[in-house]
Amino acid sequence: GLCEEACPKAAVYLQADKMAPPRYERDEFIYGKDRLVEPVSPDARSKRGIQLTPEQADKLRGQMQPA
Fold it and tell me: Where is this region: Disordered (predicted)?
């Protein structure tokens, strides 16, 4: 638990329903980006309570204004 407590954003969080399986070899602990990143739909983000930063919200508002 220290990473998710120290992270100022909602980028790091624990998921109780997803536990890492046990590993027995040292090489099995090496994770590449393909194993660390999983796609998240916008609906799933909102269900987790992840909110936009003020900068992100301003950027989105600027993109949505009619030209």
Answer: 40-67
pLDDT band, very low/low/confident/very high, at 64 (cuts 50, 70, 90): low
- The Cα 35–Cα 52 span in angstroms is 25
**Residues 35, 20 contacting (CB under 8 angstroms):** no
Average pLDDT, the chain: 74
Separation in Å, CA 22 to CA 8, 12, 30, 37, 65:
29, 21, 13, 19, 50
CA 21, CA 28: separation in Å to the nearest integer? Answer: 10
Give the CA distances from residue 58 to residues 14, 18, 46, 65, in Å, rounded to whole numbers and listed in that order. Answer: 28, 34, 18, 11
Q: What is the pLDDT of residue 11?
A: 72
